[in-house]
């Protein structure tokens, strides 16, 4: 058994945790990134077929792209797999209302990029591995969190102990660090399951992110790119009632493709192929506080959000960037990294934005689920009016892009 001290320990080498580590790399800090599972050492194999994509993708905003670029992760991502989208088309499945967004409206080349999570993670880990003062410890499950007057300590399953001025929980929605530390959360079920997979469709996706709001939940087609065929693959996220999701999961490929094509109103022609499907329940969760003395939460450990706007990991990247900035500020002022006053500055920067986005997603969900005819008329009329309000649309686009 051994005992090692660091300045910062990050528990979780997923997207948010790896992004924080990469952002801290230029600072004169000793950092450990701890991951319970094994981490692949090689770059993911890229195959240009229906099963060659990660079913988990993220809609990376321009603000997140710039952060990843600064952290040294974006440069590793293969251009052929960056699904840049220039347009977004959103419409009401129970009416005629729709809204179109275009990157040209804000003088940008794209609204964002659809990127496979495994590639984002690989790019971040590559950046971390270049850093001299960061230790990446995989196959290292944590068995306990201890607190003392000198700071928090992790007890590992192999008996080793790791201590730091600051321990950051980036271990996901079911964070053990958060629970061991006694952070309280507000949470509830959305009453939805998300079904995700990769599909091939007859018509090109037109570099457009498509989303249809159905009474049972939103259905999104997110454009993918690959070297062999850059226009006919999309990643779908279908949020729907649990019993409907179970029925979709039980279908054979032909029946599922037909059901998906019909639900999407054949906007891209018929769906001709689908990869293996995955389904998982959706639950909103938000920590009442993000920080304690010597402890901080980021990403899904702090907040989980409905995927209908694809903002989840962008919020996590914003958390990582804000916390890294505050730690750099603390170093400049010779303040302890785990000091509550330092960490509360991070919380103030992020909590309001995260709560605002979560409230907006909850409002959209309820609005489009409402079956009452007056509400259907109101939302369709509102979409028509909003689609013509160009100054307001430009403001919303910039906000969504993080600009």
Task: Output the CATH topology.
Answer: FAD/NAD(P)-binding domain
Counting DSSP E segments of at least 2 residues, the number of strands comes to 20
For the CA atoms, what is the radius of gyration? 22 Å
Overall residue-averaged pLDDT value:
88
What is the top-level CATH class? Alpha Beta
Helix content: 25-40%
Model description:
It is a single chain. It contains 10 helices and 20 strands. It has 403 residues and is an alpha+beta fold. It has a single domain, classed as FAD/NAD(P)-binding domain. Strand 1 (3-11), helix 1 and strand 2 form a beta-alpha-beta unit. Helix 2 crosses helix 7 (312-332) and helix 7 (312-332) runs antiparallel to helix 8. The mean pLDDT is 88.
Summarize the structure.
By secondary structure, this protein is an alpha+beta fold. 34% of the residues lie in helices and 30% in strands. The protein is built from ten helices and 20 strands.
Give the secondary structure arrangement, pairings included.
Layout: E1 3-11, H1 15-24, E2 31-34, E3 57-60, H2 62-70, E4 83-85, E5 87-92, E6 98-102, E7 112-116, H3 117-129, E8 134-137, E9 142-148, E10 151-156, E11 161-169, H4 176-181, E12 185-201, E13 208-214, E14 217-223, E15 233-240, H5 242-250, H6 253-263, E16 271-274, E17 278-287, E18 291-292, E19 295-297, E20 303-304, H7 312-332, H8 340-369, H9 373-388, H10 390-401
Parallel strand pairs: 1-2, 1-11, 2-8, 5-13, 11-19
Antiparallel strand pairs: 3-7, 4-7, 5-6, 9-10, 10-11, 12-15, 12-16, 12-17, 13-14, 14-15, 17-20, 18-19
Helix pairs in contact: 1-3, 1-7, 2-7, 7-8
